[in-house]
Write a structure and sequence with these properties.
The chain is an alpha/beta fold and 346 residues long. The chain folds into 2 domains: 4-180, Rossmann fold; 191-337, N-(1-d-carboxylethyl)-l-norvaline Dehydrogenase, domain 2 (Orthogonal Bundle). The protein has 16 helices and 10 strands. The protein has helices spanning 12-24, 35-44, 66-70, 85-93, 117-125, 141-144, 159-169, 182-204, 209-229, 240-251, 256-265, 270-277, 282-297, 302-312, 317-325, 338-345; strands spanning 4-8, 27-31, 60-63, 75-78, 101-104, 109-110, 115-116, 132-136, 150-155, 174-179. The strands form 2 sheets. It has an 8-stranded mixed sheet, with helices on both faces. A two-stranded antiparallel sheet has the order 6-7. A hairpin with a 4-residue loop joins strand 6 and strand 7. Bound molecules: nicotinamide-adenine-dinucleotide (NAD) and SN-glycerol-3-phosphate. SN-glycerol-3-phosphate is lined by residues 107, 138-140, 196, 245, 248-249, 254-257, 282. Residues 181-322 form the Glycerol-3-phosphate dehydrogenase NAD-dependent C-terminal domain. Its EC number is 1.1.1.94. Belongs to the NAD-dependent glycerol-3-phosphate dehydrogenase family.
Length: 346
């Protein structure tokens, strides 16, 4: 079999993952719809809009032609923003071959349908959802391209597919664990962005570390609560895709979600925040999807609920904090029901 691997979409994360793959494989094709960007990557080995100052490996070949990018590849890694996933997967269908490995590294939902990314991909490619592998975990592109040690998880109920994805990406800088819980890993990666927006809001308001620790802890409780209701293994939320990614996204200088939240906390309107970012802030769309999911399933997500009202219903961040602090008294262990706990630990 060939050693060719393909990455679809040359944003910051697609480009960083192409760099990891270029250390392990002879041919890495990076597809983009932007011809200027493809020319820049091929000529200067840079992608300055997304990863300024970084020289990319010279065996990354960028192209706007999806057919030539995909033909003869052993694996296709899709790294579109959630808003573009269906379109990109739809375009891929005509070049897709059954013996290819399908990995995605997107953290979000299709907002209109509340579907997870592997569901969207499986519908478009006509393959079983269990054959899709998700790559997730605490991993900012800016650090990965500088070879800073990074750990991620690749998840699929298909052990062979997960092991193949592990083999594809693993190297001395990029350690890859497998996990069977596709649903949990996808949900953890998407939902942590809402809490990272909240952590940014808290910092923007000038609150301290106590508030942030509370947000992360109670945020993880509501992520686990809804995750289990949607079929995830609760233990996944204690892993890299859960607490690991929540910590990095809620505290890192590189986090788009944290930065957007912090600007909102300083009183900058959402439209201005998004204009100034120039990169996708998945937590905004994910808040909409999670708000709808929580209503549909009847699962309480109090932090998500407040962030939804701040983003879309003009609630002031301070009044959101007052609402959270003034909620009814609770026991801490309402994170997941006793029945669910026993089911997973029996
Ligand atoms: N940046 C990171 O460090 C990082 C790390 C882990 C996961 N992720 C996840 O990866 C996904 C992509 O994020 P990113 O940071 O690379 O975004 P980005 O904003 O850096 O780049 C997104 C790219 O997608 C392109 N695009 C958007 N819609 C498209 C479509 N329909 N067809 C083709 N191209 C399209 C844009 O032109 C842009 O080049 C997100 O779900 C994000 O949460 C990002
Ligand atoms: O920069 P963010 O906030 O989009 O987060 C990126 C990754 O999910 C971090 O693991």
């Amino acid at each position: 079999m060939s050693d060719k691997v393909t990455v679809l979409v040359a944003g910051s994360w697609g480009t960083a993952l192409a760099s990891v793959l270029a250390a392990n494989h002879s041919e890495v094709y990076l597809w983009t719809r932007n011809s200027d960007q493809a020319a820049e990557i091929n000529k200067s080995h840079t992608n300055d809009q997304y990863l300024p100052g970084i020289i990319l490996p010279s065996n990354i070949v960028a192209t706007t032609d999806m057919e030539s990018a995909v033909a003869g590849s052993k694996a296709v890694v899709i790294v579109a923003p959630s808003s573009g996933m269906r379109q990109v997967a739809h375009s891929l269908k005509q070049y897709w071959k059954e013996d290819m490995l399908c990995v995605h590294a997107t953290k979000g939902f299709e907002t209109e349908t509340m579907k997870r990314m592997s569901t969207v991909i499986s519908e478009e490619l006509g393959i079983a959802e269990g054959n899709v592998v998700v790559l997730s975990g605490p991993s900012h592109a800016e650090e990965v391209v500088r070879h800073c040690p990074t750990t991620v998880v690749v998840a699929s109920p298909d052990d062979k597919a997960a092991a193949a994805a592990q083999e594809l990406f693993i190297n001395n800088d990029f350690r890859v664990y497998t996990n069977r819980d596709l649903i949990g890993v996808e949900l953890a990666g998407a939902l942590k962005n809402i809490i990272a927006l909240g952590a940014g809001l808290s910092d923007g308001l000038g609150f301290g570390d106590n508030a942030k620790a509370a947000l992360l802890t109670r945020g993880l409780a509501e992520i686990s609560r809804v995750g289990v209701e949607m079929g995830a293994n609760p233990l996944t939320f204690s892993g890299l895709a859960g607490i690991g990614d929540l910590v990095v996204t809620a505290t890192s200088q590189h986090s788009r979600n944290w930065r957007a939240g912090s600007m909102l906390g300083k009183g900058i309107p959402l439209s201005e925040v998004l204009e100034s970012m120039g990169m996708v802030v998945e937590g905004i769309r994910t808040t909409q999807a999670a708000y709808a999911i929580s209503a549909k399933l009847g699962v309480q997500m109090p932090i998500t609920d407040q962030i939804y009202h701040v983003l879309f219903k003009d609630r002031s961040p301070r009044s959101a904090v007052e609402s959270l602090m003034g909620r009814d008294r609770k026991t801490e262990m309402e994170a997941i029901s006793q029945e669910t706990w026993e089911q997973w630990h029996s």
